């Protein structure tokens, strides 16, 4: 008997859709429930990043999912979704607390209706608690979780991470939790409520750093450091250094090897100091040695001496990276109306292969008819529901 996980996703923005995309890439049948006008990510895309009218925000986290556009405020629409859930294994939502309850689709009701369901909630700060009703968004959670304070932390002040790392990590964590709960369901027949939050994801991202911070009490000034030092808990020279052109990062490196590689008397004189207690002094000395060097000359010497380093690359450089090309990090897809979009591929391989690209829900309700026909509705019934404003279907299907 062949099993396919069936997922109903009430998700928008990024954390929830990212989770659904991970599952869809791995072979789950994922149906995204959207309002008739489409989810938020269809109508916004930061940086004016659109491809023939299609939001790059949508493209980033909805691969291999199907779109069912439905008016959940209408009884017929709600009943259609309940029929879909009756055949599903997993329900995911990332609304604010109480939204699904007001729609008559709350988890307590769904659990009574189908006890074997895996129910998954992706919230901002948690489904309960004193801050549960506050807005949850990536930048806000970078701030609340301490990530911004630790990331900048140098004498130049705090700095956020320049990507939605908390959202993406939250989606991956929820997908992992759902898979664990699904295995439990297969073993026991029991459903599970899986809860993730951006706040928890922001904290989890810093497991190593937080454990080290709390291991030693009363050191709130530990984040203050020379601007070149990339982490509050590493010895110098760990960090970012300008070159004559561009920048280089140095990881954990032996000071004797580094002094030899740079043929630096200044670094030889410092190689015996405590490079954590005096990290600013050491980092400044390294910075002075590197500021006139060129990466093309420096890198072969560093390689020869076993110095861990990388040139700081931008997004254009990344596309040309031979290892990124070998790993097939990106995938080009066609967009309706002409043109293409470049997607980040699924990050894992299975038996050496990447999951296939099957589809993208370019339009809200693009798959409404196909989804409902799997429930037994006829084409005429689907069209009648669309005419009544219960579901959304592309006009091209008329």
Radius of gyration: 25 Å
Mean pLDDT: 95
Tell me the distance between the termini.
37 Å
Instruction: Give the uncertain stretches in residue-range form.
Output: none
Main-sheet strand order equals 8-7-6-1-2-5-14
* Strand composition percent: 15-25%
- Helix percentage range: 25-40%
Main sheet characteristics: 7 strands, mixed
Computed structural class:
alpha/beta
Number of strands: 14
Number of helices: 18
What's the shape? elongated
Task: Describe this protein's structure.
- With 398 residues, the protein is an alpha/beta fold.
- It has helices at residues 15-25, 56-60, 75-86, 99-102, 107-113, 138-144, 147-151, 165-188, 198-204, 207-215, 255-262, 265-270, 279-290, 295-304, 315-320, 322-326, 368-374, 379-387, and strands at residues 6-10, 29-34, 50-51, 54-55, 65-70, 90-93, 118-123, 192-197, 239-242, 247-250, 309-311, 330-334, 340-344, 391-392.
How would you summarize what this structure contains?
Helices cover 39% and strands 15% of the residues.
Main attributes of the structure:
39% helix, seven-stranded mixed β-sheet, alpha/beta, three-stranded antiparallel β-sheet, 398 residues, 18 helices
């Amino acid at each position: 008997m062949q099993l396919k996980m069936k997922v109903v996703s009430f998700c928008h923005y990024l954390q929830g859709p990212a989770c659904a995309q991970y599952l869809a890439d791995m072979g789950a049948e994922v149906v995204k429930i959207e309002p008739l006008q489409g989810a938020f990510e269809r109508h916004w895309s930061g940086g004016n990043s659109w491809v023939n009218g299609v939001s790059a925000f949508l493209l980033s986290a909805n691969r291999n999912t199907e779109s069912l556009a439905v008016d959940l405020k209408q009884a017929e629409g709600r009943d259609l979704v309940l029929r879909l859930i009756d055949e599903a294994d997993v329900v995911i939502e990332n609304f604010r607390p109480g939204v699904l309850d007001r729609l008559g689709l709350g988890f307590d009701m769904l659990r009574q209706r189908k006890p074997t369901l895996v129910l998954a909630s992706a919230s901002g700060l948690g489904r309960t608690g004193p801050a549960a009703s506050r807005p949850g968004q990536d930048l806000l959670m970078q701030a609340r979780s301490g990530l911004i304070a630790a990331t900048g932390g140098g004498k130049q002040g705090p700095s956020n991470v320049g990507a939605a790392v908390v959202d993406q990590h939250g989606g991956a964590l929820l997908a992992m939790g759902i898979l664990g709960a699904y295995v439990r369901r297969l073993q026991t027949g029991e459903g599970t409520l899986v809860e993730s939050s951006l706040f928890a994801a922001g904290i989890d991202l810093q497991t190593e750093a937080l454990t080290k911070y709390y291991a030693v009490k009363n050191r709130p000034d530990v984040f203050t450091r020379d601007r070149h030092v990339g982490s509050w808990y590493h010895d110098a020279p760990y960090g970012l250094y300008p070159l004559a052109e561009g920048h280089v990062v140095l990881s954990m490196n032996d000071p004797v090897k580094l002094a030899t590689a740079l043929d630096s008397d200044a670094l030889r004189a410092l190689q015996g100091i405590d490079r954590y207690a005096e990290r600013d002094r050491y980092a400044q000395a390294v910075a002075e040695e590197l500021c006139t060097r060129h990466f093309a000359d420096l890198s072969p010497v560093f390689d020869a001496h076993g110095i861990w380093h990388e040139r700081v690359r931008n997004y254009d450089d990344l596309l040309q990276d031979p290892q990124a090309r070998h790993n097939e990090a990106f995938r080009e897809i066609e967009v309706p109306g002409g043109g293409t979009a470049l997607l980040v591929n699924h990050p894992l391989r299975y038996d050496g292969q990447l999951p296939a690209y099957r589809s993208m829900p370019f339009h809200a309700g693009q798959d409404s008819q196909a989804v409902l026909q799997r429930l037994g509705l006829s084409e005429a019934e689907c069209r009648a529901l669309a005419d009544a404003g219960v579901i959304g279907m592309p006009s091209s299907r008329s």
